């Protein structure tokens, strides 16, 4: 039985490594021969009937092919994928990658999409978590004041530790823009500090 389990584990590891290697090869081909694939961009749009592995691979291809000429088309397509339960989180991540790849053309659209997600009271918490993390990645240096206000209000409803920590981080990074909001946010977190996750406590202390 032990040998059988070890063999199965070994086969799974080999399969995982092979899949990773194959993915890296495909991404390398795309990066080197991007112009060859760009005319066929729509061929990589995801279909609901695609297997999950195919869906994820297509998302990777789309974000590899994105440029200033097609970024708005790609983002609109990714926004549609956010309605797919099994692909929503990956689609949000992909929107963030588009903003990083083509910041001048995509940042406003991407930020608007992410803000819409985190402001939607009916959005799944997992999606909100991903959206906030992507925002953190995008807003290292600049963050609109209205966005910071919206994000700070999320602390009252969001429960996921990573999301709460990211919100505190965003406010702390741009505290000069929100001198009146930061103290109120800190007071709210102080009430639940003992029960917060370590990552939230750390960001609360940084904000203080």
UniProtKB/TrEMBL annotation:
Residues 10-24 have a biased composition (Basic and acidic residues). Residues 29-207 form the Clathrin/coatomer adaptor adaptin-like N-terminal domain. Residues 1-24 are annotated as: Disordered. GO terms for biological process: intracellular protein transport; vesicle-mediated transport. Its main location: membrane. It is found in: Endomembrane system. PANTHER family: ADAPTOR COMPLEX SUBUNIT BETA FAMILY MEMBER. Signal peptide: none annotated. GO terms for cellular component: endomembrane system; membrane coat. Keywords: Membrane, Protein transport, Transport. Belongs to the adaptor complexes large subunit family. ARM repeats lie at residues 109-138. The keyword Protein transport applies. InterPro entries: AP_beta (IPR026739), ARM-like (IPR011989), ARM-type_fold (IPR016024), Armadillo (IPR000225), Clathrin/coatomer_adapt-like_N (IPR002553). It holds the Pfam family Adaptin_N. This is Clathrin/coatomer adaptor adaptin-like N-terminal domain-containing protein.
């Amino acid at each position: 039985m032990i040998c059988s389990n070890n063999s199965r584990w070994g086969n799974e590891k080999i399969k995982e490594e092979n899949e990773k290697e194959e993915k890296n090869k495909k991404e390398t081909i795309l990066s080197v021969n991007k112009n060859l694939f760009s005319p066929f961009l729509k061929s990589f749009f995801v279909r609901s009937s695609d297997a999950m592995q195919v869906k994820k691979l297509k998302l990777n291809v789309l974000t590899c092919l994105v440029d200033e000429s097609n970024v708005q088309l790609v983002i609109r397509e990714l926004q549609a994928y956010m309605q797919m339960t099994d692909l929503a989180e990956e689609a949000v991540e992909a929107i963030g990658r588009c903003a990083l790849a083509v910041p001048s053309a995509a940042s406003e659209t991407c930020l608007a999409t992410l803000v819409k997600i985190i402001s939607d009271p009916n959005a799944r918490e997992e999606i909100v978590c991903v959206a906030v993390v992507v925002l953190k990645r995008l807003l290292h240096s600049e963050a609109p004041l209205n966005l910071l206000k919206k994000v700070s209000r999320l602390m009252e409803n969001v429960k996921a530790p990573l999301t709460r920590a990211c919100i505190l981080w965003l406010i702390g990074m741009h505290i000069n823009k929100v001198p009146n909001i930061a103290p109120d946010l800190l007071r709210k977190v102080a009430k639940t500090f003992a029960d917060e996750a370590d990552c939230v406590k750390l960001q609360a202390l940084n904000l203080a």
